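Posted in: Structural Biology > Protein-Ligand Complexes

Title: Requesting predicted complex, nicotinamide-adenine-dinucleotide in pocket

I'd be grateful if someone could produce the 3D structure tokens for the following input. Sequence and ligand are given below.
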Amino acid sequence: MSHHLLRHYIAGAFVGSSRTFDNVSPVDGRLLGQVCEAGQAEVNAAVEAAAAAQNGPWARFSAAQRADLLERIADGIERRFEDFVAAEVADTGRPVHQARSLDVARGVQNFRSFAGLVRQAGGEFFEMRSGDGSDVFSYTVRKPHGVVAIISPWNLPLLLLTWKVAPALACGNSVVVKPSEDTPSSATLLAEVMHEVGVPAGAFNLVHGFGPNSAGEFLTRHPRVDAITFTGESRTGSTIMRAAAEGVREVSFELGGKNAAVVFADCDFDAAVAGVLRSSFTNSGQVCLCSERVYVERPIYERFVAALKAGAEKLKIGYPDEDGVNMGSLISHKHRDKVLGYFQLAVEEGASVVTGGGVPRFGDARDKGAFVQPTIWTGLADDARCMREEVFGPVCHIAPFDSDEEVLRRVNDSAYGLAASLWTRDLGRAHRVSRRIHVGMVWVNTWFLRDLRTPFGGARLSGLGREGGRHSLDFYSELTTICVNP
Ligand code: NAD
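-- Reply #1 --
Done. Output follows.
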């Protein structure tokens, strides 16, 4: 990509602003371009455009017409598929094959999936006999909230943004989106697609910028925003919730995790090793669902540690387009400093470093990138900070366990509650254990496999509410009950 200036998209037009910030490649520190930063004025304009669209042509779209529009957006992304892949790779440094098969593919699928859902969505209907003997019926209609603010993180930029934009538009809302300052590119391309396929002006707006005292905060504090949906850190979720309390706005939060993988001695050993390798190191560990705590039943513990170490040491780290590359850089040098801080803390807390624990050396431009080695620890106490806090890097700790009760207690002893994965051939045990884990999602003999119709979200610090399938339609719409006495 040549040097670019990424602009906001407000009321159907691309607009700039005087303040800008750098868009930098995490692979080699190269400057990719500049991004406009929205101040209060640009955020006001975007929210007002969104509110105005609720009284314009967008408001007259039927559910079927909105579904058709979502399909056209999906077609539009597919037409520019490789541009989206390049944008995602440039911002994040991830392997090209991952951007193709996961990020951009899921972006398309999100729009198609919610197009199908909103076509099928019905309401509720009840009949009752009233005191005067007439048959009264009540039914529900779905209406948009109005203006929905969508704030997304950098780890799966297009996937997580479209996961919210698609159902919000499907339900007839207008949206103002603010992507992460670290990943502004694919969201800007999405705005171009919205423009190309004729999304009515004001229905989709994009503002760039940071969180505190910038676009994110201005947006969540704006009184004309009716609902806020956010994916990111738990602490940011608390801040946004305080902003949303003013005006009693609805929120939906998908937040951090400190997820466990539990490997029972009766598992398919090779499948479990491959599964935990994926769940710990996919996207350089920068997926909210990644496992950072691995518990292995004692009879296979030593063998499992050795096999995971061998697997981690075979992972190829490098440029996004290198042949056979498994892991790219982290998102930024700032984030690498945080991850390396945990690598150091773990040693201070008494961890044995089974593999990794540092920065790979390449002897070329990649040495200026934000790379870290895939890392495995053992020997930490359950109350160590590295066992309690989310690192969000390619790292896991492996501990042995002796019984179901013990491992359940240790898995649940967390401030987070997003996801867990179990590896066992005993499905009876899998059912018994799964329902007692306090998380939003449990995988058995797999990880990251999502049926988009199922509810998704977290317990405790990991989130508030559920999205996915009809749960998304419920969050993005207001239900009105109409009671008729004929
Ligand atoms: P972050 O909270 O730092 O930032 C997320 C977004 O919020 C960015 O767009 C940022 O600019 C904005 N923001 C920051 N402060 C704000 C404020 N005060 N007001 C309004 N907006 C603000 O998170 P991140 O570092 O970008 O993302 C990583 C985190 O996201 C991890 O904790 C990860 O677990 C979590 N995550 C959760 C899920 C999930 O589905 N549960 C999915 C992906 C990532």
